[in-house]
Amino acid sequence: MPMMYGFAVQRRQMLESELQRLVDEMPQLGMQSMYLVGPFSKGDVDPSTVLDLVVVQETDEVTHRRADFWTTHLRPRIGINFYVYTPHEFENNVDDDLLLQYALSIGERVYG
Q: Which residues contact 104 (CB under 8 A, 6 or more apart)?
């Protein structure tokens, strides 16, 4: 998809700014650690680039509702995918979960 000249720089700045805001705000809400995964973690930026984040948080919420907590409390300014794991899941499911394998081997640890 073609981009306007300078758009990639502006989009990268938006993504970096939002990521920093999340790193600053999420620990007070219970985040224990966070990994940046997906295209942005590899430096790829286009108009549809979003933040893909693996978040470790103690929670009793069912898996498919966990991201709702972060979306509701943080009101993201850009597209964000939250993939939330409990500490137990994060430590014990690596062999069976490709996203966790990616986070630990290729992703960027941005908090914790």
A: 35, 94
